[in-house]
Specification:
408 residues; mainly alpha
């Protein structure tokens, strides 16, 4: 059983993808690395930032919630406002905003200024991911679309492998402010790579609000977005507060190594999944959500066990290393006739899940403890599995409308 993952591409003539085209994909992947490093940098630095800014860890979690809210708003509205503007220039503009965001965060004297910087990140982030997932098939020949998407999403796993742990390492001998400054330097490199390598990406037609209404009219599309929301909500309601949980049993250096292991195994998970996801999409999504649930439950049941928590982090890395790719291919497949609208909805629902999950998780951590927060994450993961079962049953029954993925 698998989902058909054919997507629209601007270069689907069967020719071989050129080196120049792959370099363009790599440039976008470097940008993805920069965006994700900036987005999740506060996760590993939450206790230090909260202490320096004089707020609780739950309130400091607003550094994750704020960009999530902004990204959810800007993912659809930015591209509607951009009209037919060449997507290459939109990429460059958004990356420049990311640079400013990190400079503001590095210099923030208090929480309000920090949240302004994080809001700028969110505004850029929503538009970037909408463009990145929609543009991937346009940068290469049609038969390389899934591989191009996987390479761009490798930027996500590289950020967890290198970016976030490196930020923690820098903070361990200097300060968290230097971590944000170093991230700004990374963004500058990404901006140069985009300017040199990404080709013109003219938009044949402007994104319209009617496109979103057309997709939301499809039961399959609606349920798919709910499934994504539950899975990402399960991850970010818990992973945002992983440092306060781990610091009960591990030193800062040990936490850095755990997050490094999380990222490394996530990188290999993403690479291996890119080889099979097109043929076994339903099974791939189901397996990764099950692993996510297993990791969260293990953190609860094996708490204060170094071996148990280490194993749980590695299982978690396998799950989250592959989930963004699995869901991206799923959404590309189901919205092939509205690629930018589908991508914008996908990014928005992820950011809503990040914002809501981190906000609710923060409130629970402050008032009921981090273990209770992980119980919420487990419940959300179970709901994700239930929704996956429902959406695949809908596809089998033939009730989904045109352009849905087809099961065989």
């Amino acid at each position: 059983m698998h989902l058909d993952t054919t997507t629209n591409s601007g270069t689907s003539n069967g020719q071989t993808t050129t080196l120049r085209q792959w370099l363009a994909v790599l440039a976008v992947a470097v940008s993805a690395f920069a965006f994700v490093t900036a987005e999740f940098l506060p996760v590993g630095l939450l206790p230090q930032i909260a202490h320096d800014l004089g707020v609780s860890p739950g309130v400091a979690g607003l550094m994750v919630t704020t960009p999530g809210v902004m990204a959810a708003i800007f993912a659809p509205t930015l591209l509607v406002g951009a009209g037919r503007m060449d997507r290459r220039y939109v990429f460059l503009l958004l990356t420049a905003v990311l640079f400013v965001s990190n400079v503001v965060c590095a210099m923030a004297p208090g929480l309000i200024t920090m949240l302004v910087g994080r809001a700028l990140l969110g505004a850029a982030l929503g538009g970037f991911w909408t463009l990145a997932t929609a543009a991937a098939p346009r940068l290469v020949q049609g038969n390389d679309a899934a591989k191009a998407t996987a390479i761009i999403l490798t930027g996500v796993t590289f950020a967890t492998v290198i970016g976030v742990p490196l930020g923690i390492f820098i903070a361990s001998f200097a300060s968290w402010r230097l971590s944000f400054a170093a991230t700004a330097g990374l963004v500058a490199v990404a901006l140069i790579a985009q300017a040199l390598l990404v080709p013109r990406l003219p938009s044949a037609s402007a994104l319209r609000l009617q496109d979103f209404r057309a997709l939301l009219a499809r039961p399959h599309a609606r349920l798919s977005m709910v499934m994504v929301a539950f899975a990402f909500g399960a991850h970010f309601s818990t992973y945002t507060y992983i440092a306060p949980l781990l610091e009960q049993d591990f030193s800062l250096n040990a936490i850095t190594l755990l997050l490094l292991g999380f990222g490394i195994i996530g990188f290999f998970s993403n690479a291996l999944m890119s080889m099979i996801v097109a043929k076994h999409l339903v099974k791939s999504v189901g397996a990764m959500i099950v692993l996510l649930l297993a990791a969260i439950m293990s953190m609860l049941l094996l708490g204060h066990s170094h071996i148990g928590e280490t194993a749980a982090m590695l299982i978690w890395g396998i799950a989250f290393g592959a989930l963004p790719l699995c869901f991206s291919v799923w959404i590309q497949s189901g919205t092939a006739d509205y690629p930018e609208a589908g991508s914008a909805m996908f990014v928005s629902i992820i950011q809503v899940a990040i914002a809501t999950g981190s906000a609710v998780g923060g409130a629970i951590v402050d008032h009921a403890g981090v273990e209770t927060d992980f119980m919420l994450g487990a419940v959300l993961a179970v709901l994700g599995l239930v929704t996956l079962h429902r959406v695949t049953a809908l596809a089998r029954s033939g009730m989904a409308m045109a352009a849905k993925p087809s099961l065989d």
